[in-house]
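Input set for joint prediction.
Command: fold jointly, output tokens.
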Amino acid sequence: MIEIREARKQYGDQVAVQTLNLQVNDGEIFGFIGPNGAGKTTTIKMTVGMLRPDAGSIRVNGIDVWQEPLLAKQCIGYVPDNPDVYEKLTGLQFIRFVADAYRVPLALRRQRTEELSAAFAMQDALGDLIESYSHGMRQKIVLIAALVHAPRVWMLDEPLVGLDPKASLVLKTMMREHANQGNTVFFSTHILEVAERLCDRVGIIHRGQLVACGSLDQLRTERSETLESIFMEVTEQ
Amino acid sequence: MITLLRLQLVASLGLNYLLQPGKRGRKLGVLLFVLLSMAPAYTGFVVLIGRAYGFLAAHNLPFYDLVLTGMHALAQIMILFLGIPILYAALFQANDLSILLPLPLRPAHILAAKLGVAYVLELIAAAILFAPALFFHAHYARPGAVMLGSGALCLLLLPAIPLALCALLCMAVVNVPGIGRSKWVWHLGMMLGALGAAAGMMMFTNSGPQVDLLDLVQAKMQQVAQMGRWIPGSVFAMRALALPGAEGLLNLALYGAAVVGWGVLLLAAGERLYIRPVVRGSGVAARRRRRADPLHAGSFLTTYVRKELACTLKDPAVAMNAVGGYLSVPILLLMYTILKIQTKGQVDVVGQLAQAAHSPLLQRALPFVVVGIALGLSFLGTSSSLFAASYSKDGRRLWLEKTLPVPAWTLFLGKFLFGMGLVTSLNAVTVVVAARVVPLGVGEWLYILLLSEVVIAANGAIALLIDCRRPKVDWKDTVQAVKQNVNVLLAFGATTLTLLLNGMLLAATYRLGLPASTLYAQLLAINGLLLAAVLVAARSLCRGLERVSV
Ligand SMILES: Nc1ncnc2c1ncn2[C@@H]1O[C@H](COP(=O)(O)OP(=O)(O)O)[C@@H](O)[C@H]1O
Ligand SMILES: [Mg+2]
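tokens >
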């Protein structure tokens, strides 16, 4: 569960997120959509403990991210929009590095690494230096490392960009299963079809403000027929 | 074409801040600070050249041309050395070819724009070196307006031939199959090249007759000019600078022709050696396959130190800059050996030092020699980017450190322990080598090792803290993270300050005539306290990493 209360963030005098209130429940896939520069990444960074909000509070599974950062981070799996990782480690060394940080027991990390790398077809590349990976492979290794400690809350910033169709399908299936098991999936995207098919609820952010939020059915009855037309309508001004 | 050149200039010099009013003030402040700290050395250089001309004028000696051509040659040689790293960076480290190649541009234009940036940079270096000589030449030698004009032209064209040579060399080496793309080959090659060139120049200028001072100066200038003449084509420039009238102009024209010739050759070769391999896709390093090691579990601190080890030592730019001052140890040894062999044992610094150490005067000052060596070793250990760019070298990857459930202090400690491990091993080797040439007792050397380690630890922690609070995260290549990093300068300043304090303490102890044991204990205690204080402060200050935005 994610609760964002009155969160605000500005860079210098440019407001990136203004007074955001948002709740994502357990068992839910939440799609965070908005045009480029709307404030999606900023919101996610505040939630995963990378960027301190100027005001307001953020709780993950009931733990305040900025008062108990280590506890809160322990239950989050975060995939950033840019997969910048230590190029001089091998894929497996990187997974081990992250797993050590989350103190994942050996049996669990073996099992998760095997499952995830098989799912993303990365077994053969794990011994190579990350330096030699393509963009998509880097994204996959970040995904595997982010999920190796079996976190309850997934925070994914544009996770489908750069993945091949197979990996993309695998990830979407995994997101569904994870939510069905009573966990939380929060992801940002600007691909509306994906959001439409995958999400239980969506939030549309525009110029740092949440301009629409609710389940797809709710939005359809309140506003218009397709997510695309809703999106165009609320981001018009 | 002009737009492309301007874009490349703005991008490679980071000039964008000049166009952004908000950040201008602070960046200009830093620039001003750097310029100011260079000013004394440069003023000295200008005054020296002025003095040389003044001396020649006072003694009515007709060597003006020699000084001018000598400086021209010197500037060319400098550019030959500076040019290789600059061109290597511009041609092979900026990953913008993938953007430029698809644009409707001729390959020659792309190449010319990239070379143009290097040319502008080198022109600045050339002006810094050559313009003072030209100025004093105009003042003392009173050449005609025509000569001055050709002097100015020679200045403008000065970087052309050395740069063409550098570019051809870079492009040729990169195309050597197998090794030409290896960063290790480049970094080691550049270092060994600089070493060899320095040694070669020393041997060349040390040879030849040495009679009285004037002859010596003349001989040196002639030797420098001779070296300049080895750069094909530049002999015309030197004649143009020295010969009056029509002959001078003829040589100027020949010089211009030589520059154009090199330019055409370079563009033709660049098309084949630079653009074509990229289009063919052969410029990609071969992918190495490794055996996957088993997945262990362990403490995060150990894993973090291991990660630091891999990310520092496997990247040549980071590794060479982290090892920093220690690279000068073999260089100094080599210079010492060359000097000793060349002067047939007359100049033997270490031998004379050993003799002096046994003299009664130095026996009294022995504790100060011991402390001096320890402080010198500390300087060697901390004048690098090892601590001062430790966070910066992670750059954008710091998102990971910031989102893992790990206290900022653990990260700090991991970086600190890794840095100390590396420095300690290098420091210990240096002490062992030094102990073989400088005759001090075992106890003294152990104390030197101990004190230098404590001072290095304190300064390293300060440097690490500086980098933790304001790491440079925006870079494309790790060279930018470790070389063009203000934190390295700031940490260097902090080190100088603590060493200065130690020196003052030393002087005070000397005045008071305290015994050696008191001096030793005092320094150890004070530096130990400094280390403890910095670590305690760092424990809370390192949380500032939270505010760093990546
Ligand atoms: N580090 C930063 N410094 C200044 N402005 C920033 C920074 N990061 C983001 N912004 C600005 O904040 C706004 C929101 O950015 P972001 O959250 O990245 O948008 P999104 O992810 O929705 O595309 C944008 O206008 C962007 O220009
Ligand atoms: Mg974004």
